[in-house]
Amino acid sequence: MNEIDLKRISRLTAILTQLQTKRLLTATELADKFAVSVRTIYRDIKALEQAGVPILTQEGKGYTLMEGYKIPPVMFSESEANALITVEQLVVKNRDSSLIKEYQEAINKIKAVLRYSTREKTALLSQRLAVSPAISGVNTSNSLMLIQNALTNFQVLRITYQREDENKKSERLIEPFALYYSLQENWTLIAYCRLRKDYRMFRLDRIQTIYQTELIFKPHTLTLQEYLAEKEKNFKTPDTLLS
């Protein structure tokens, strides 16, 4: 499959998402959004129809999906949808920009499969939610998604880390173990540090560079509950950094 085919598949998927997000879309609107010609949109719509997607054409008005068509098996109640919309307002104030980006893309897909009446209500709710300006919303890291991926795939990370109490930077090979969100609204990575040969905590905003390596580590036998219990016994929390 060449690059042109991949781009078209990606565009077809995005068009389907757009059709589920809005009730009626014109070929011109879709062409402008995806930076292609109206003729290309006509071909894309035809391809979706041939694939079994029930697209209805309203002459002179645009395209819409047959009422009730949704991507199975995702179904959300109104309360579930409202919960997701509420969390969205908190996530956008998060300090890690990679989390914000991935969540917004996910929530857009979720909105696309909501019933039309529920979608209208969640749109209203999102306009009636606000987060205190005391929460800055300034992004201080962009690595949370990469770290989560490494954590679940047991991949060693190579980082350049700068301690708060010194200007010196250090190179580390670390095995991601867990993530902790502090009262200071900072993400902290708990990891086994191969340099220190022990578990250490790294604030994401102090990680200067981060890369996934091809090294794989064995899953840790220690549980997060055991780690936190040990911290509490020593009158410390993951807010007390030891890197």
Automatic annotation (TrEMBL):
Matching entries from InterPro entries are given as: CBASS_pafABC_assoc_protein, DeoR_HTH, HTH_11, WH-like_DNA-bd_sf, WH_DNA-bd_sf, WYL_dom
Is the keyword Nucleus in the record? no
- The entry's keywords: DNA-binding, Transcription, Transcription regulation
- Ranges for the HTH deoR-type domain? 8-63
User: Which Gene Ontology molecular function entries are recorded, alphabetically?
Assistant: DNA binding; DNA-binding transcription factor activity
Coiled-coil zones? none
Record flagged with keyword ATP-binding:
no
> What domain of life is recorded for the organism?
Bacteria
What is the official name of this protein in its record?
A: Predicted DNA-binding transcriptional regulator YafY, contains an HTH and WYL domains
